[in-house]
Design brief:
Layout lengths: L4 E5 L10 H14 L4 E5 L2 H13 L4 H20 L6 E4 L15 E4 L1 H5 L14 H11 L4 E6 L16 H4 L5 E6 L3 H10 L4 E5 L4 E5 L2
Length: 215
Protein backbone atom coordinates (compact mmCIF):
# COMPACT_ATOMS: atom_id res chain seq x y z
CA UNK A 1 0.00 0.00 0.00
CA UNK A 2 1.43 3.35 -1.06
CA UNK A 3 2.25 6.00 1.55
CA UNK A 4 0.89 4.01 4.48
CA UNK A 5 1.60 5.60 7.85
CA UNK A 6 1.73 3.44 10.97
CA UNK A 7 1.01 5.32 14.20
CA UNK A 8 1.68 3.50 17.46
CA UNK A 9 -0.36 5.03 20.30
CA UNK A 10 1.24 4.27 23.67
CA UNK A 11 -1.09 2.84 26.26
CA UNK A 12 0.07 5.37 28.86
CA UNK A 13 -1.84 8.05 26.94
CA UNK A 14 -4.99 6.69 28.54
CA UNK A 15 -3.96 8.38 31.80
CA UNK A 16 -3.61 11.86 30.30
CA UNK A 17 -6.29 14.50 31.08
CA UNK A 18 -9.20 12.08 31.43
CA UNK A 19 -9.23 11.21 27.74
CA UNK A 20 -8.82 14.74 26.40
CA UNK A 21 -5.37 14.00 24.98
CA UNK A 22 -6.73 10.94 23.18
CA UNK A 23 -9.58 13.02 21.78
CA UNK A 24 -7.23 15.67 20.41
CA UNK A 25 -4.91 13.06 18.94
CA UNK A 26 -7.89 11.30 17.41
CA UNK A 27 -9.00 14.48 15.66
CA UNK A 28 -5.51 14.99 14.20
CA UNK A 29 -5.31 11.35 13.06
CA UNK A 30 -8.69 11.64 11.37
CA UNK A 31 -7.47 14.70 9.45
CA UNK A 32 -4.28 12.91 8.38
CA UNK A 33 -6.31 9.96 7.09
CA UNK A 34 -8.06 12.25 4.62
CA UNK A 35 -4.75 12.66 2.78
CA UNK A 36 -3.20 9.19 3.05
CA UNK A 37 -3.91 5.78 4.62
CA UNK A 38 -3.25 5.47 8.35
CA UNK A 39 -3.09 2.36 10.50
CA UNK A 40 -3.02 2.51 14.30
CA UNK A 41 -1.14 0.03 16.47
CA UNK A 42 -2.50 0.23 20.05
CA UNK A 43 -0.25 -0.07 23.06
CA UNK A 44 -1.17 -2.19 26.04
CA UNK A 45 -1.55 0.45 28.74
CA UNK A 46 -3.32 -0.53 31.96
CA UNK A 47 -4.59 -3.72 30.32
CA UNK A 48 -1.03 -4.97 29.80
CA UNK A 49 -0.08 -3.71 33.27
CA UNK A 50 -2.72 -6.08 34.68
CA UNK A 51 -1.06 -8.95 32.84
CA UNK A 52 2.32 -7.90 34.25
CA UNK A 53 0.88 -7.73 37.76
CA UNK A 54 -0.61 -11.22 37.71
CA UNK A 55 2.41 -12.55 35.87
CA UNK A 56 4.52 -11.52 38.86
CA UNK A 57 1.88 -12.40 41.46
CA UNK A 58 1.38 -15.93 40.11
CA UNK A 59 4.90 -16.45 38.78
CA UNK A 60 3.63 -16.98 35.24
CA UNK A 61 6.01 -17.78 32.41
CA UNK A 62 6.66 -14.99 29.92
CA UNK A 63 5.42 -17.31 27.19
CA UNK A 64 2.10 -17.42 29.05
CA UNK A 65 1.92 -13.65 29.54
CA UNK A 66 2.80 -12.73 25.97
CA UNK A 67 -0.48 -13.78 24.26
CA UNK A 68 -2.39 -12.24 27.17
CA UNK A 69 -0.55 -8.96 26.59
CA UNK A 70 -1.41 -9.12 22.88
CA UNK A 71 -5.07 -9.29 23.85
CA UNK A 72 -4.46 -6.25 26.08
CA UNK A 73 -3.42 -4.35 22.94
CA UNK A 74 -6.68 -5.37 21.29
CA UNK A 75 -8.59 -4.08 24.32
CA UNK A 76 -6.93 -0.69 24.02
CA UNK A 77 -7.79 -0.77 20.32
CA UNK A 78 -11.49 -1.12 21.11
CA UNK A 79 -11.18 1.85 23.47
CA UNK A 80 -9.41 3.97 20.84
CA UNK A 81 -12.27 3.58 18.40
CA UNK A 82 -14.30 5.97 20.54
CA UNK A 83 -11.58 8.63 20.38
CA UNK A 84 -10.64 8.51 16.67
CA UNK A 85 -13.51 9.79 14.49
CA UNK A 86 -14.33 7.63 11.49
CA UNK A 87 -11.97 4.86 12.56
CA UNK A 88 -12.50 1.16 11.89
CA UNK A 89 -11.39 -1.88 13.84
CA UNK A 90 -9.48 -4.24 11.57
CA UNK A 91 -8.65 -7.73 12.78
CA UNK A 92 -5.40 -8.72 11.13
CA UNK A 93 -5.84 -12.47 10.95
CA UNK A 94 -2.72 -13.30 8.91
CA UNK A 95 0.73 -11.68 8.98
CA UNK A 96 0.41 -10.59 5.33
CA UNK A 97 -3.19 -9.37 5.64
CA UNK A 98 -3.80 -5.74 4.60
CA UNK A 99 -7.52 -6.10 4.05
CA UNK A 100 -9.55 -3.18 5.35
CA UNK A 101 -6.78 -0.55 5.45
CA UNK A 102 -8.19 2.13 3.19
CA UNK A 103 -7.75 5.89 2.75
CA UNK A 104 -10.05 8.26 4.69
CA UNK A 105 -10.74 5.79 7.51
CA UNK A 106 -8.05 5.28 10.17
CA UNK A 107 -7.61 1.53 10.69
CA UNK A 108 -7.14 0.39 14.29
CA UNK A 109 -5.27 -2.89 14.03
CA UNK A 110 -6.37 -5.75 16.27
CA UNK A 111 -3.24 -7.80 15.81
CA UNK A 112 -3.22 -10.48 18.53
CA UNK A 113 -4.25 -13.26 16.17
CA UNK A 114 -1.72 -12.21 13.54
CA UNK A 115 1.22 -11.85 15.93
CA UNK A 116 0.52 -15.24 17.52
CA UNK A 117 1.25 -16.75 14.09
CA UNK A 118 4.63 -15.01 13.77
CA UNK A 119 7.63 -17.29 14.48
CA UNK A 120 9.28 -16.70 17.84
CA UNK A 121 12.55 -16.08 16.01
CA UNK A 122 11.00 -12.87 14.67
CA UNK A 123 9.03 -11.77 17.75
CA UNK A 124 10.20 -13.36 21.03
CA UNK A 125 7.49 -14.38 23.49
CA UNK A 126 8.79 -12.22 26.33
CA UNK A 127 8.49 -8.74 27.83
CA UNK A 128 11.48 -7.60 25.74
CA UNK A 129 9.12 -7.57 22.75
CA UNK A 130 6.29 -5.20 23.63
CA UNK A 131 3.86 -3.24 21.49
CA UNK A 132 6.82 -1.10 20.35
CA UNK A 133 8.41 -4.10 18.63
CA UNK A 134 5.06 -5.18 17.24
CA UNK A 135 4.51 -1.72 15.73
CA UNK A 136 7.94 -1.89 14.07
CA UNK A 137 7.24 -5.41 12.80
CA UNK A 138 3.85 -4.45 11.35
CA UNK A 139 5.31 -1.33 9.72
CA UNK A 140 7.82 -3.56 7.93
CA UNK A 141 5.23 -6.20 7.08
CA UNK A 142 2.80 -3.68 5.60
CA UNK A 143 5.50 -1.70 3.76
CA UNK A 144 4.75 1.51 5.63
CA UNK A 145 6.61 4.62 4.53
CA UNK A 146 6.63 6.16 8.02
CA UNK A 147 6.34 4.93 11.60
CA UNK A 148 5.28 7.40 14.29
CA UNK A 149 5.67 6.34 17.91
CA UNK A 150 3.41 8.42 20.15
CA UNK A 151 4.47 8.37 23.79
CA UNK A 152 3.23 10.32 26.81
CA UNK A 153 6.68 11.84 27.44
CA UNK A 154 9.50 13.45 25.50
CA UNK A 155 11.99 10.80 24.41
CA UNK A 156 15.74 11.38 24.75
CA UNK A 157 17.78 11.26 21.52
CA UNK A 158 19.45 8.03 22.65
CA UNK A 159 16.09 6.22 22.42
CA UNK A 160 16.64 3.53 25.01
CA UNK A 161 14.69 1.66 27.70
CA UNK A 162 12.23 2.34 29.20
CA UNK A 163 11.14 4.57 26.30
CA UNK A 164 11.44 1.66 23.86
CA UNK A 165 11.85 -2.08 24.33
CA UNK A 166 15.07 -3.95 23.60
CA UNK A 167 13.76 -5.81 20.52
CA UNK A 168 12.48 -2.70 18.76
CA UNK A 169 15.45 -1.85 16.56
CA UNK A 170 15.95 -5.35 15.20
CA UNK A 171 12.33 -5.39 14.00
CA UNK A 172 12.61 -2.19 11.95
CA UNK A 173 12.76 -2.24 8.17
CA UNK A 174 16.04 -0.75 6.86
CA UNK A 175 15.62 2.87 5.86
CA UNK A 176 12.23 3.34 7.53
CA UNK A 177 12.00 6.79 9.15
CA UNK A 178 10.68 6.64 12.71
CA UNK A 179 9.52 9.66 14.68
CA UNK A 180 9.06 9.67 18.45
CA UNK A 181 6.57 12.30 19.59
CA UNK A 182 5.10 13.38 22.92
CA UNK A 183 1.38 12.72 22.52
CA UNK A 184 0.47 15.30 25.15
CA UNK A 185 1.13 17.83 22.39
CA UNK A 186 -1.07 16.65 19.49
CA UNK A 187 -0.17 19.77 17.51
CA UNK A 188 3.28 18.27 16.98
CA UNK A 189 1.77 15.35 15.08
CA UNK A 190 -0.23 17.77 12.94
CA UNK A 191 2.87 19.86 12.27
CA UNK A 192 4.94 16.81 11.33
CA UNK A 193 2.40 15.74 8.74
CA UNK A 194 2.13 19.28 7.36
CA UNK A 195 5.79 20.33 7.27
CA UNK A 196 7.78 17.13 7.73
CA UNK A 197 9.40 18.52 10.89
CA UNK A 198 8.39 19.06 14.50
CA UNK A 199 9.64 18.78 18.07
CA UNK A 200 10.57 15.17 18.67
CA UNK A 201 13.22 12.60 17.86
CA UNK A 202 13.79 11.18 14.39
CA UNK A 203 15.39 7.76 14.11
CA UNK A 204 16.85 6.78 10.76
CA UNK A 205 16.68 3.01 10.92
CA UNK A 206 19.08 2.64 7.99
CA UNK A 207 22.10 3.93 9.84
CA UNK A 208 20.66 4.03 13.40
CA UNK A 209 21.40 7.75 13.73
CA UNK A 210 19.11 9.93 15.79
CA UNK A 211 18.27 13.55 15.38
CA UNK A 212 16.44 15.67 17.91
CA UNK A 213 14.37 18.32 16.19
CA UNK A 214 12.94 21.31 17.96
CA UNK A 215 10.46 23.96 16.95
Amino acid sequence: MENLIIIKLGGSLIYQEAGQVLSRLGAVIQQISQRQPVAIVPGGGPFADTVRHYGQELNLAEATCHPMALLAMDQFGYLLRQFIPGSRLIEVSRPEDRHGIVPSQPAILLCSRCINLVPESQIPRCWDATSDTIAAYLAKLLNATLLIMIKSVDVAPEIKAPDVDTCFRQSLAPGLPVWFLNGRHPERLAELMTTGRTQGVLLNSHNSQQEKTRL
